[in-house]
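Hey all, quick one. A colleague (J.T.) asked me to put the magnesium ion job into the tracker so the inputs and the structure tokens live in one place instead of scattered across chat threads. No bug as far as I know, just bookkeeping. Sequence used:
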Amino acid sequence: MSLSKKVLLNAYKIMATARAMSDLFEEKRDITSKYVHATSRGHEAAQIALGMHLLPKDYLSLYYRDDSVLLTIGMSPYELMLQLLAKKDDPFSGGRTYYSHPSLKDPDKPKIPHQSSATGMQAIPITGCAMGLRYKEVTGMMTDEEKGAIAVCSIGDAAMTEGEVSEALQMAVLKKLPILYFVQDNGWDISATAAETRAQDAYEYAQGFKGLERVTADGSRFDEIFEAVERAVDIVRNERRPVLLHTDVPLLGHHTSGVRREMYRDDLHFHQQRDPLPYLRNLLMATGITEQEIVGIDSIAKKIVIESFEKALKAEEPNPEDLHRHYYAPTPITREEGERTPAGKERVVMVDSALFAVRELLAKHPEALLYGQDVGRRLGGVFREAATLAQQFGDERVFNTPIQEAFIIGSTVGMSAVGLKPIVEVQFADYIWPGLNQLFTELSRSYFLSNGKWPVSAVIRVPIGAYGSGGPYHSSSVESVLANIRGIKVVYPSTGADLKGLLKSAFYDPNPVVVLEHKGLYWSKVKGTEDAKTVEPDEHYIIPIGKGRMVHLIEPSDDAPTCVVVTYGMGVYWSKEAAKAFAGQVEILDLRSIVPVDFELIRERVQIHNRCLVVTEEAVNNSFAQALAGRISAECFEYLDAPVQVVGSIETPAIPLNSELEAYVLPNANKVRAAIEKLLKY
Ligand SMILES: Cc1ncc(C[n+]2csc(CCOP(=O)(O)OP(=O)(O)O)c2C)c(N)n1
Ligand SMILES: [Mg+2]
């Protein structure tokens, strides 16, 4: 195929610019290596070919070596250098993240949701974008301008061996998603070779995914790779199905500024022979462009790059005060509203309150959808927490996923980027671990690291807690780990009304919210948990995240000491039972939200009662509860008449299966009672 002079000329100008940039970065490495960076040197032809086929309506996920894609879609060298030098006006992150880690929402360029620096982890979020595009298509939600939009996942050859990539590919073929996986194969994984790290290349690997169209091309030859990208993009855009394009490229620069080629590369000479620059220059000359004209292009590129660098060096540094911006996207839900206890209604079990909340949300919002393991039509959730929803809203909106917790959680990044509101489920808290990586690496940091461009709207429902001999893999508590992931919110309601109200606010919250739902409270089968059943609040009922609730209020007394028990989840019921032994001396504060926590309410109650006990289902050491007790001790010290106490489980690596062992490990009303007694006597 012969490419037009216009295309070749344009490609050459970009390649000359990219080359001038990597030359300059190397020449000025004393300055530029302050912050680690990689360049596309050697990969330019493949990247330019890709960039030339993208449209502003597309969704794009790049990796750290993709600066030539960024130049091709219209970023200027100056803008990229602002990121290289982590300046205030870095258009992607305001100096918060590395070079060539883009996040972009410009109307005239492809949309780039935030992606982390973790190799291969972008595959799931961007496949989530493709799933969202497909969902909008099949449900008629897609606007005319969006029609034909595709998702593109750019990825390195070594990153392809990450386990999460297979979850993404599986879903892409299963759902026939409009996505292009663009694998740049330079044969290196930092210093490990292909022979050491894989039994097959990405092209061969793709064969295992039925329905994944495969294309392979030499990425050092601009004409060849351009034609291959054209073919691949055409299939994805018009036939709406996934394609993997594998391209062999030389790696001519360093792995990164820190891991330099001279330390270990023994194949540079071989790679050098496949330099895409002279190859493209020859193609251009074959169209009649003279050597002199080419020299002219080179020197203009160099001049622009040097001037951009000088200007970027002088650009303003970020302000530490601005760091507080874009922690959470502002939520519209700031007040409790609606009717919590409508008159004349029967109490319902907690699991039904959740079901009704999700049903109302799906009925009201076409952009809402629910997916997870076994939530589809046949079962409606292993707890029947989604029963009948698929029947009512259809299998496109309520569907089963494979056992892929990483995909379930990570795909919300992409679904949310295309404007949808995913509600997802992890079947048991014990199995959140495979999804935790996505939660931490991608969801929690997206808003902050994109400098406010890409909040992730996700409701992640997680049944949690020990109950009825669930044993070591159906009983775990995980709130402390979640509480340590900055950027997400975590709620843990203990009644049906609170669960309904908090599911609603989780949905309207533009940030990722994990909703922990205690399995032992779902049906109030555990003795003493009858109050988890409540009258179902009305449709408008909503509770702001971060507001606790006084379960039981008492007045301070001059005659006897009093205390406040701060707790959540099952702890509320152990504490209620325990409090019966101390009439008028114990009040109970149900946190309802773990993050953010209602410290104002805690402070107010501690000031009144001067004694405080924190009750948790977790083992105490290094727990959320212990940290909270520490904060209460530090911030309320002058009001305290006794050290803040914590009651939790016995320290074991897991909850044992045997019912007596289980009971021995977990807190209960007696253990809480003993702690209260000690506290009141102190
Ligand atoms: C999850 C994760 N593990 C390890 C790293 C460190 N790391 C950065 S780049 C890299 C090699 C990636 O090679 P490849 O995907 O082939 O891309 P290339 O740099 O060769 O273009 C590694 C291991 C990382 N960023 N993320
Ligand atoms: Mg590589």
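Adding what we noticed when we looked at it: The chain has three domains: 5-324, 347-535, 549-681. The chain has a mean pLDDT of 97.
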